[in-house]
């Protein structure tokens, strides 16, 4: 997300992704059906969610709201949230250039 604030839009996206991945018609791998809800949620957080936020003070708040256990479970989410202007950001996360690698980009409307 290009302006995630405290993560409310991301919360909604996670819910949609969980429902979609649980839908047997929509999934291509049976692995999603074998995961518990918590395992699926962690997988989504660690592999599918990236964000850029202009206000640096929102990043730790969003991390806590979206994944309160992120420090205990060696979450990758903190590596996927960056502070910056989404229009000028280079979209390098954890040393990897992510330009052109996103399937969906969404943002919090003003």
Can you walk me through this structure?
This protein is mainly alpha-helical. The chain contains 5 helices and 4 strands. The strands form 2 sheets. A two-stranded parallel ribbon has the order 1-2. A hairpin with a 2-residue loop joins β3 and β4 (about 95). The longest helix has 15 residues, at about 10-20. The radius of gyration is 14 Å and the shape is globular. The two termini are about 15 Å apart.
Secondary-structure topology with pairs:
Elements (H helix, E strand, L loop, with lengths): L7 H15 L8 H4 L2 H11 L3 E3 L4 H9 L10 H4 E3 L8 E2 L2 E2 L13
Parallel strand pairs: 1-2
Antiparallel strand pairs: 3-4
Provide tags for this entry.
mainly alpha, 39% helix, globular
Give a count of the beta strands, DSSP E runs of length 2 or more. 4
Helix content: 25-40%
Beta fraction? 5-15%
> How is the main sheet built?
2 strands, parallel
Which strand order do you get reading across the main beta sheet?
Answer: 1-2
Order of helices and strands: HHHEHHEEE
What does the radius of gyration come to? 14 Å
Q: Structural class, please?
A: mainly alpha
Oligomer description? single chain
Number of helices: 5
- CA-to-CA gap between the ends? 13 Å
Average pLDDT score? 82
Short account of what is shown:
The protein is mostly helical and 110 residues long. Helices cover 39% and strands 9% of the residues. The chain is built from five helices and four strands; from the N terminus they run αααβααβββ.
């Amino acid at each position: 997300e290009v302006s995630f604030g405290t993560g409310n839009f991301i919360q909604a996206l996670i819910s949609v992704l969980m429902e979609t991945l649980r839908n047997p018609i929509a999934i291509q791998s049976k692995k999603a059906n074998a995961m518990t809800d918590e395992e699926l949620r962690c997988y989504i957080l660690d592999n599918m969610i990236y964000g850029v936020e202009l206000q640096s003070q929102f990043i730790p708040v969003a991390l806590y709201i979206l994944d309160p256990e992120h420090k205990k479970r060696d979450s990758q989410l903190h590596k996927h949230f960056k502070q910056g202007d989404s229009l000028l950001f280079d979209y390098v996360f954890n040393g990897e250039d992510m330009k052109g690698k996103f399937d969906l980009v969404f943002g919090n409307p003003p």
